[in-house]
Amino acid sequence: MKGNVLVTGGLGFIGSHIVKALSEITEREVFVYDINAQDGKRKKVVTVQGDIFASDRLLKVMRDGEISDVIHMVGLASIPSCREKPDASYKLNVASVQTVLEAMRLHKAERLIFPSTAAIYGASNGPKVNEEVEPKPSTVYGSHKLAAEHLIQGYAENYGFKPTILRIFNVYGDLNKEQGVVSLFLRKAIAGEPLTVKGGNQLRDFVFLHDVVRAFTNVLDSTARRYEIMNLGSGVGVSVIEIAELVRQSFPTLQVKHEVPDEGEYNIYADTTRLRKLLGSDLTDPRIGIPRFIRECKRKHGEC
Asked: Is the pTM of this model over 0.90?
């Protein structure tokens, strides 16, 4: 019989939406373990204030909550921030994973869902990458996420865990919490500020938040193999210049400034064959999803 679900970092950008979705579709209790949480319970969601490195408290939550499945959303998901603070990146993106894995081992929880990143592929792979491509990370963030993947694989092989690693591309869909280029451009447009595009010809994969949440919840309900990896993207390459133009179309007076890129541009987007089998339906094309997201934001913030 399946136990309850623990979402570490469940108040963050993606984690908070996963928790909301699970509270609406699962009969199991959903535990949120987050340093910014306040202890409490509302319907099927139990919130627990806790530091991810407080291993005794984490283990107690797993045991008392009868946890069988863990979604580990703690991390520092910013390439510039990880480059500026590599020690913080290591602690949040690698050491926190070790803490969770060890608590799971002691508690005998078997199922882990982990958000990795497209940054593990690096600049030399692409443009379209599948999960069999050899990772060649070129950033601190990508290197630390790959190290976390190796930790998870080691625990899977030695202790019988059933982890699923989702290599996430560029997520959009939450104007308040998202730090990616789509919401960055949109916030500037709403504020009447010009957009600055450095280069912008590089192709990136932009995946709608709704599809990301759907992937996590579907993985949770699926019968996992012992160890599996899956790209989580839209499967479509879109340039940053196109993103700026999609925003400008909704804000006709918006100015767009173009600058020379800081470094060489490269293209990368996901092969989503495995993901489509999991979801059983089409993914949102960003050229459809981004305008939809812009319209929703304009309705909430009024005509700008």
From this structure: yes
